[in-house]
Amino acid sequence: MIIAIDGPAASGKGTLARRLAAHFGLPHLDTGLLYRAVGAQCLADGRLGDEAASVAVAEDLDVRTLDPEALRTAAIGEAASVVAARPGVRAALLDLQRRFAAQPGGAVLDGRDIGTVICPDAPAKLFVTASPEVRAERRYKELIGRGEPARFEDVLADIRIRDARDSGRASAPLAMAEDAALLDTTQLGIEEAFAAALALVDSATSRHP
Ligand code: DC
Prior knowledge:
By secondary structure, the chain is of the alpha/beta class. The chain has helices spanning 13-24, 32-45, 51-59, 68-71, 74-84, 87-101, 114-118, 132-145, 152-168, 190-207; strands at 2-6, 28-30, 107-111, 124-129, 181-184. Helix 2 packs across helix 3, helix 5 packs parallel to helix 9 (152-168) and helix 8 packs across helix 9. The structure holds 2'-deoxycytidine-5'-monophosphate. Residues 9, 31-32, 35-36, 77, 80-81, 84, 111-113, 162, 166 line the site of 2'-deoxycytidine-5'-monophosphate (DC). Residues 9, 31-32, 35-36, 77, 80-81, 84, 111-113, 162, 166 line the site of 2'-deoxycytidine-5'-monophosphate.
């Protein structure tokens, strides 16, 4: 079974994807980490503005070397959003994601274009969202918890900029697939959100076994 989960930054999709993967015993790929790894390398090389260099980094990406903790900073998230708008970067990461999804038994993938581009035939698709203010609050707490200096107003401004870039780009923009189920976590705690996600996946898979 393939479970495709999309949504904007800090919507809770990553946590839900991990929980669903554990529940169903499926491998999980946080596809944002791929774009973060490319953005981080371009930043380190001082070549974030160089499109060809970012495509080359994406083509050479070794997923075994990804360090999720090191990649979750705000600066790398911003760099990821910049490189993710480039069609060549997206094309370079496409096969890897499709191969991950095609594993026997299935997989859970979360990102921005999983239900629309990477796995359009996934039987279970969720689009997880929440208000920008609630998402900024979550991201703010996460950054403070990791010891990163942050101001709520800056985090909210960054979330709005990222939303606009991720949704406004020409190549595979953040969008809800027509056949995805919408899960708004604005008013939900993690346990309630997980119960709702599980119910939506169960209902989708009973319709498309
Ligand atoms: O989910 P995240 O914050 O780790 O994602 C980082 C950036 O990568 C995000 O701004 C948009 C981009 N991204 C994407 O374009 N497509 C995906 N499937 C996953 C992430």
